[in-house]
């Protein structure tokens, strides 16, 4: 009996799809990749080139890794799955963990890799090219990711967060009549940051300085600030008496204010 | 007999839905489907699926509602509408709007929600090829949960930088001594100040104060250095974290700390971290720390001189005003 309209996956069981019809599906070592091992695929590695193919299958004791390559790079993306409990779908990612496609199968079909010997099994483009219909061009244009020195990789809506004396701001300029966003980076420092870093959040209090000195007597008060020199001078005036006995004497620790004169002779 | 076309075959099989899990949706409803999960969708092919969950039949049109369990699209839907009378195999396009799908509102399916994209860009787009429109026009409402073939879903989650967003963390701000009134900031201090969101398109980096930007085209690397005097040079004034940042009342710096020329650095040329005022002969120095006051009494004690000095009251005035933003003790 012939089924007039076989279901999608059933129709692909007995054909080479998602590989090209002229793919041999046998590698140089004579290892065959059976038709129906994979039922469907969608391959979209970023920067993927023409003629993507199954470049390599690495089998270990308990898992297998499938590599997808193209004419420029033989390990454009990969997907690892358990051989002990095979999944129904292999998720492919590139070296930065970005999604690169899926290979659709079934657990029983992927368990065939259990029979492959432990090691690396390579294929060429002529042996295992995918049909063009499952390969989605994904040009590597624009900023695809931001990579830091420590290997951190950022995609999507990326936040640039300035701290510890760095300030970010944005402005718009026009270049050749085209508005362009500009990110400005200012390094202005954070004067109190180092102190806070050393003291910790709990023990930190901002340094407090003497900012003004008020000289007061009775209801009179005179407020003196530091002025441009940062120095306050306390002097002795002789306005009230020509021969004032008041003396103000600087000492290494500060000032001594005293009066001169004969001291009381006492016990 | 000509070989049936792709769409023609598909309306006789479950595709683009997974066979065996498509009930109760008849195969002639849709001929093909595809969608793209964009950054913000949170879609992971290992964990998440896309399902046809509802077909709403109206007198003049029919809606196809697709939903997903991707965390960035929970409650949202991809809604395709076909007007009755259109051709079979018509291709429809739809995108998520960031609004939650309300199955009770036929005028607003998928048009109301919490957007997982800062930039209000759709994070889910798709296309649908309808099947037999004449049958669809005479159909009924159908509810189910039929998963779509996973190879028809392209995930670009984490695939590219969709936008740059700028923020500055809080600077270290001055605090007042214990028992003193807090500074009055003319804005609300935050831990993080969002400067701008959704910078897209061509973006340039510009060096500001004390910053140096290096570019290595071979390794495609941008390197930012802090160097005194580089870029725009050293700033003459303060740089704002946000447009509305301003000094607290009574201060001139944005962090609230005094400037170098606003503090007493020496008295009579003597600079000490802890300055001592000593009383010599004839002078009594009395500290009153709680009032930040030092009383210098030149009473000539211990001196043989004993002039008849009139008793004068000591200074008792206070300059602390009632304004809570003025310097002074807490009430």
- What would you report as the Rg of chain B, rounded to the nearest angstrom? 37 Å
- What oligomerization state is this entry in? heterodimer
| Cα shape of chain B | elongated
Mean pLDDT of chain A: 88
| Beta-strand percentage range of chain B | 25-35%
Number of contiguous helices of chain A: 4
Shape of chain A: rod-shaped
Question: In the residues of chain A, how many domains can be counted?
Answer: 3
| Fraction of residues in H or I helices of chain B | under 10%
The helix-strand sequence of chain A is HEEEEEEHEHEEEEEHEEEEE
What is the H/E order of chain B?
A: HEEEEEEHEEEEEEEEEEE
**Major beta sheet, strand line-up of chain B:** 5-6-1-8
Number of strands of chain B: 17
What is the total domain count of chain B? 3
Looking across the biggest beta sheet of chain A, what order are the strands in? 4-3-2-7
Characterize the biggest β-sheet of chain A: 4 strands, antiparallel
Helix content of chain A: under 10%
What is the CA-atom radius of gyration of chain A, in angstroms?
Answer: 40 Å
Proportion of residues in extended strands of chain A:
35-45%
Biggest interchain interface, per-side counts: A-B, 111 and 110 residues
């Amino acid at each position: 009996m012939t089924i007039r309209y076989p279901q999608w996956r059933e129709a692909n069981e007995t054909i080479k799809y998602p590989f090209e019809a002229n793919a041999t599906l046998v590698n140089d070592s004579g290892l065959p990749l059976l038709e129906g091992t994979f039922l469907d695929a969608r391959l979209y590695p970023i920067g993927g080139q023409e003629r993507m193919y199954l470049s390599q299958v690495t089998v270990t004791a308990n898992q297998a890794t499938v590599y997808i390559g193209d004419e420029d790079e033989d390990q454009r993306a990969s997907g690892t799955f358990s051989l002990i409990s095979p999944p129904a779908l292999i998720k492919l990612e590139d070296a930065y963990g970005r999604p690169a496609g899926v290979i659709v199968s079934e657990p029983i079909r992927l368990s065939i890799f259990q029979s492959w010997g432990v090691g690396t099994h390579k294929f060429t483009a002529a042996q295992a090219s995918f049909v063009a219909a499952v390969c989605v061009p994904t040009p590597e244009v624009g900023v695809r990711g931001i990579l830091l020195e420590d290997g951190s990789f950022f995609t999507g809506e990326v936040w640039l967060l300035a701290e510890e004396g760095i300030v970010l701001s944005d402005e718009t300029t026009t270049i050749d009549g085209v508005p362009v966003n500009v990110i400005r980076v200012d390094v202005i420092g954070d004067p109190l940051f180092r102190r806070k870093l050393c003291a910790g959040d709990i023990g930190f209090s901002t340094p407090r300085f003497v900012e003004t000195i008020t000289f007061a007597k009775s209801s009179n008060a005179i407020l003196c600030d530091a002025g441009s020199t940062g120095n306050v001078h306390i002097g002795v005036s002789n306005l009230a008496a020509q021969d004032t006995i008041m003396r103000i004497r600087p000492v290494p620790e500060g000032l001594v204010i005293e009066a001169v004169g004969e001291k009381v002779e006492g016990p | 007999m000509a070989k049936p076309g792709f769409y023609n075959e598909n309306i006789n099989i479950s595709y683009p839905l997974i066979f065996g899990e498509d009930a109760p949706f008849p195969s002639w409803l849709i001929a093909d489907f595809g969608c793209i999960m964009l950054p913000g969708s949170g879609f992971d092919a290992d964990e998440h699926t896309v399902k046809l969950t509802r077909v709403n039949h109206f007198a003049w049109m029919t809606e196809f509602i697709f939903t997903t369990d991707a965390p960035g699209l929970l409650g949202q839907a991809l809604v395709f509408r076909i007007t009755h009378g259109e051709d079979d195999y018509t291709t429809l396009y739809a995108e998520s709007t960031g609004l939650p799908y309300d199955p009770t509102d036929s005028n607003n399916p998928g048009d109301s929600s919490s957007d997982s994209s800062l930039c209000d860009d759709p994070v889910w787009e798709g296309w649908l090829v309808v099947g037999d429109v004449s049958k669809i026009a005479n159909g009924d409402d159908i509810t189910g949960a039929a998963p779509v073939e996973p190879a028809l879903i392209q995930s670009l989650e984490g695939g590219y930088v969709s936008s740059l967003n700028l923020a500055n963390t809080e600077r270290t701000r001055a605090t007042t001594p214990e028992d003193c009134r807090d500074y009055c900031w003319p804005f609300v201090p935050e831990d993080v100040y969002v400067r701008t969101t959704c910078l897209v398109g061509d973006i340039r980096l510009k060096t500001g104060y004390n910053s140096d930007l290096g570019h290595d085209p071979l390794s495609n690397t941008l390197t930012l250095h802090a160097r005194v005097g580089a870029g725009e040079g050293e700033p003459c004034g303060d740089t704002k974290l946000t447009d509305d940042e301003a000094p607290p009342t009574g201060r001139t710096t944005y962090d609230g700390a005094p400037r170098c020329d606003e503090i007493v650095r020496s008295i009579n040329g003597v600079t000490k971290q802890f300055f001592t005022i000593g009383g010599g002969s004839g002078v009594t120095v009395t500290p009153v720390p709680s009032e930040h006051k030092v009383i210098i009494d030149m009473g000539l004690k211990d001196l043989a001189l004993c002039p008849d000095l009139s008793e004068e009251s000591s200074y008792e005035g206070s300059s602390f005003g009632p304004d809570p933003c003025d310097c002074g003790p807490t009430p």
